[in-house]
Design a protein that fits this description.
By secondary structure, the protein is of the alpha/beta class. It is built from 7 helices and 9 strands. Residues 1-7 and 105-120 have low confidence and may be disordered.
Length: 221
């Protein structure tokens, strides 16, 4: 699909950042084509439930799950995450949410892209609200989000009684300002820890060793 939904560097970076155990029941809010859950499949976990509102993307996600032979480990649920009521809580919740506020920036001619990039169907407050509802008391939540909207994100965290545990800023180059960040939240951390920044490119314009290692994905999508 040349005009449809794509994933970029944020998906593999988020998948790499998420920490899991083999007993974890995991929830993805806003799965898109399922790429983060697919990338996460190399890590230990019991099961991933991935919720996606767009029927077209949920269908692609299901096909991607089947293509990678993960039907018994990853389930795609076509539903509005704001209404999602699974009747249980999760050890890990994660999301690569829409970054841009409604009315901000140029809307793509592709509805899939527009909904994935802009807060048309849900916003960061909706996502953190659902995270607060469905995360176990000892659970962990992981997100990737724009630096320019960090204050919105932190407001949403506080509003839902979550705490920031770790934050890692991602910069294109060593001397460039960060454009987005990776963040781990829980209910009990007393103080947030800022991890060393993640640098995507070296001085020659090649991926850094850390980036190269992460982007050698083994899933098909």
């Amino acid at each position: 699909k040349k005009k449809g939904y794509r994933f970029s560097v944020d998906a593999p970076l988020l998948a790499d950042f998420i920490q899991t155990k083999h007993t974890d029941e995991i929830l993805e809010l806003g799965a898109g084509n399922g790429i983060v859950s697919l990338l996460l499949s190399i890590k230990p976990f019991k099961h991933i439930t991935a919720v996606e509102i767009q029927e077209s993307l949920a269908d692609i996600a299901r096909r991607n799950v089947k293509l990678n032979k993960l039907e018994e480990k990853v389930s795609i649920v076509r539903e509005d995450l704001r209404q999602y009521q699974p009747g249980k809580k999760f050890d890990v919740v994660f999301s690569n949410p829409p970054y841009l506020k409604k009315g901000e920036g140029h809307l793509s001619s592709s509805e899939e892209k527009s909904i994935a990039k802009h807060e048309l169907k849900c916003n960061i407050f909706d996502i953190l609200k659902k995270t607060g509802e469905l995360l176990k008391s000892e659970g962990k939540a992981y997100f990737v989000f724009l630096v320019k909207r960090k204050e919105d994100f932190l407001q949403a965290v506080e509003r839902n009684q979550l705490k920031v545990k770790y934050i890692r800023f991602v910069s294109p180059r060593q001397d460039s300002p960060a454009n987005f960040f990776l963040i781990e939240c829980d209910f009990s951390s007393k103080k947030d820890v800022i991890l060393p920044p993640f640098i995507l490119y070296d001085d020659e314009g090649n991926y850094t060793l850390e980036a190269e290692k992460i982007f050698k994905g083994r899933v098909q999508a």
